[in-house]
Amino acid sequence: MRIDIISVVPDLLKSPFEASILRRAIEKNLVEICFHNLRDYTTSSYKQIDDYQYGGGAGMVMMVEPIDKCISKLQSERNYDEVIYLTPDGEVLNQSISNQLSLKGNIIMLCGHYKGVDQRVRDLFITKEISIGDYVLSGGELAAAVLCDSIIRLIPGVLGNETSALTDAFQDNLLSPPIYTRPSTYKNLKVPEVLLSGHQKKIDDWRDEQALQRTKDRRPDLLED
Ligand code: ADE
């Protein structure tokens, strides 16, 4: 998979890819991440990428031309499955969207800044608009990092244990059950007996029950669809 990320501050999202699982995925060539600075696509001598809103109002708008130049250059070099715009008014990210995106080959992610992008960018180029939650960030970069992380960990070979992404919370619309490691007793708190029993069927049943109970208590909305 190749992900091209377009931003006015690409430095803001480099560090998540320089450590741990994402870094290893890149080193193993399971994913390639390419950053593009929008200012490299301006024609004006001021390297202007934003301008005042037509109709007035506070906040600058990202201009269509530099974004057009950048996306068009990328699209002339290879085919892209999706051109995603990170925006608080997009579809709210969930595990099912990440699962689908993890199967794609090439993706462009466009990070908005200021008030956002000129509507014509969305009309001309964007195939999917994604929000990472009902709150406003100062730009789309952190949202793009979140989206990349949730996608990349699903690519086969990225996680050491192939089954671990499949048993993640949300994969079956359930939250995860409680988990424990050594010691078996800590400050009078004991690990549930069944987990020490060695009886796999009973352990699986207990985990299923706990996952369902936790979901009913904390996220009953997940059980509705
Ligand atoms: N840009 C600003 N806020 C955002 C959000 N919540 N999700 C995605 N992109 C954003």
Could you outline the blueprint of secondary structure elements for this entry?
Elements: E1 2-7, H1 20-27, E2 32-37, E3 50-52, E4 60-62, H2 64-77, E5 82-92, H3 95-101, E6 106-111, H4 119-125, E7 128-131, H5 141-152, E8 185-186, E9 189-190, H6 193-196, H7 200-218
Parallel strand pairs: 1-2, 1-6, 5-6, 5-7
Antiparallel strand pairs: 3-4, 8-9
Helix pairs in contact: 2-4
The structure holds adenine.
Adenine (ADE) binds at residues 86-88, 112, 131-133, 135-137, 140, 143.
Output the keywords.
Alpha/beta knot; Trp Operon Repressor, Chain A; 5-stranded parallel beta sheet; two-stranded antiparallel sheet; binds adenine
Output the number of helix runs.
7
Structural class: alpha/beta
Overall pLDDT score: 95
Question: How far is the first residue's CA from the last residue's CA?
Answer: 31 Å
Under the CATH scheme, the architecture of the largest domain is 3-Layer(aba) Sandwich
Describe this structure in words.
The protein has 2 domains: 151 residues, SPOUT methyltransferase, trefoil knot domain (Alpha/beta knot, 3-Layer(aba) Sandwich), CATH 3.40.1280.10; 56 residues, Trp Operon Repressor, Chain A, CATH 1.10.1270.20. It contains 7 helices and 9 strands; from the N terminus they run βαβββαβαβαβαββαα. Strands 2-1-6-5-7 form a 5-stranded parallel β-sheet. A two-stranded antiparallel ribbon has the order 3-4. Strands 8-9 form a two-stranded antiparallel sheet. α3 links the parallel β5 and β6. α2 runs parallel beside α4. It is elongated, with a radius of gyration of 22 Å. The two termini are 31 Å apart. Bound molecules: adenine. Adenine (ADE) binds next to β5.
